Amino acid sequence: MSNNIKPQKPAPTPSYSQNSALLASRARHFLPNAHHYHSKALQLVKARGVYVWDEQGRRYLDAIGGIVCISAGHNHPKIKQKLMQMLEDDEIQHTSLLYLSRHVVELAEALVAVAPLGLDVASFTNSGSEANEMALMAARQSTGETIVINLRHGYHGGTAATLAQCGHQSWRYRAQPGAATTSAMEPNCYRCPFKQKRESCDLECATNVETTIQTSTHGKIAAMIVEPVMGIGGLIDPPAEYFHRVTKIVHNYGGRYISDEVQTGAGRCGNEFLLSKELGIDADMVTMAKGFGNGAAIGAVLMKSEDAAAFAGKLYFNTFGGDPMQTAQARATMEVIAEEKLSVNAVAMGQRLENGLRELMKHHHLIGDVRGRGLLLGMELVEDRDSKQYATEKTALFMDKCCEKGVLVGKGGLMGNVVRLAPPLTISAGQIDQLLEVFDRSFAEIS
């Protein structure tokens, strides 16, 4: 019997410069809920400042900031130089808190220096989800209680404990049972669950937090976790007085108040590095990620020393929490934000953008509401301003229209009808005007 079997040629490597090949591989190897924003998938391969480029070399203004992760601008020269020098010097790329590293200590000191008064302990993780997990664990350990209050429409991450605090059914799984957690009404002034007006209400939404504790718990809680501006929830931005009332309620029932600044931190929403400090929120813990590292995989928790003391005698370890590269990038990002006064720019450009959006409202009735703080803004799109019917399909169409014209925006809200805007804090007045011009044309085409 002949043994002349010819060796088979290896299968050709697919060209992943083609979007079709990438989509086919994703369909084979990714979870079926791996989604992308646009009707025609977009491959991004290059970035600089406020711009990104696709594989065809076409440029886009990134008005969603790498999903609210880019604060100092894509590939900022100072941050690049810092990382390149560390590699050139053969600095250790991975270690852990089992060994000493100056980078993690320098970052902790810098963070505590800009934190709200009393938050003097910092711990680092590799994501906002993990930061919120740690804050929840700290609150439960410190108080000896387990129940956590969250808000309907809130979002705090993709891990088990954080998704248990999620107020969106599309994000929740059977793996996140509702035990030891309960939800208060969302402080949404545009769609007030109490049918009140922002200018004349008595903050019934804040009172509802106490009602929730009184009717859904045994009278003691571990914590309440709230975003100062609810990002995924559709840029819901309560008045500052809401937080003042709610923190008092939480403390009266023995709980810790956790301010989730994963999206609102890093100078995006005010003149301070953290919005909690800007608004005078009496938080016991503040969490952050995303823009904190300008895209690096790093999160952080700030807490009071008395709560941190509850960890004594227990072990905690995070393999990648406090790595030299990530902490050095976060530290360089903080320096850029301070040196270039990017928080000041965020306030000014945010106001310019908000004013422009409100002007567009006069001509495009698809815009039902404009809200947010600094450079974290949202437009809620509705079919009719009286009924406030969700314009979900038109929101997706608007995003595609903007993409065709070289502008990338995001979306949020329970019904996916809120356009999310979070460009890098380096954006200029001319670029804001470019955004508004593209929005105007896109709305006109939809109409």
Task: Provide a descriptive summary of the structure in words.
With about 450 residues, this protein is of the alpha/beta class. It folds into two domains: about 40-75 and about 340-375 and about 385-395 and about 410-445, Alpha-Beta Complex (Aspartate Aminotransferase, domain 1), CATH 3.90.1150.10; about 80-340, Type I PLP-dependent aspartate aminotransferase-like (Major domain) (Aspartate Aminotransferase, domain 2), CATH 3.40.640. It is built from 14 helices and 15 strands. Strands 4-10-9-8-7-5-6 form a seven-stranded mixed sheet, sandwiched between helices. A four-stranded mixed sheet has the order 1-2-3-13. The chain has a four-stranded antiparallel sheet with strand order 11-12-15-14. Strand 8 (about 255-260), helix 9 (about 275-280) and strand 9 form a beta-alpha-beta unit. Helix 13 crosses helix 14. The chain is globular. It starts with 18 loop residues before the first helix and ends with a helix. About 50% of the residues are buried.
